[in-house]
Amino acid sequence: MERISQSVEALVRKYETNDPWDLCEKLGIIVIITDLPDGVHGVYHRVGEQQIIFINKWVDTVQMKMICAHELGHAVLHENSNMCMRLDSAIELEQEAEAFKSQLFHVRMFNSELKVFGHDEIVEFANLAPNSFIMDF
Description:
Oligomer: single chain
Radius of gyration: 14 Å
Largest sheet: 3 strands, mixed
Number of strands: 5
Distance between the termini: 8 Å
Number of domains: 1
């Protein structure tokens, strides 16, 4: 998990944002909102050098932001993976992407310094329901 925390902190520090939409733009990752099969909320894919995130257009905007953060985790942590692998490897990669997403919403820049936020602050920032479950580290 330390590697994930360091990756998130380096990104937030470099680009002075923890917004997944802004980070995708700054990293040159294309985000496509489109119709995906039932049960598929998001997909990370790499074509040559281009990283692409697909997000299901049928989820609400709050979910889109969370899905974008999760898929951004794949782009940063597993940039050369296209999710065609053994199930045990896929489970580990999914857990890492979830940890990346959670860590991304725990960290925010203030006057060039990182601040780690608690549950209530994350809920407010991400516009989540007050009883939302957020993975803690």
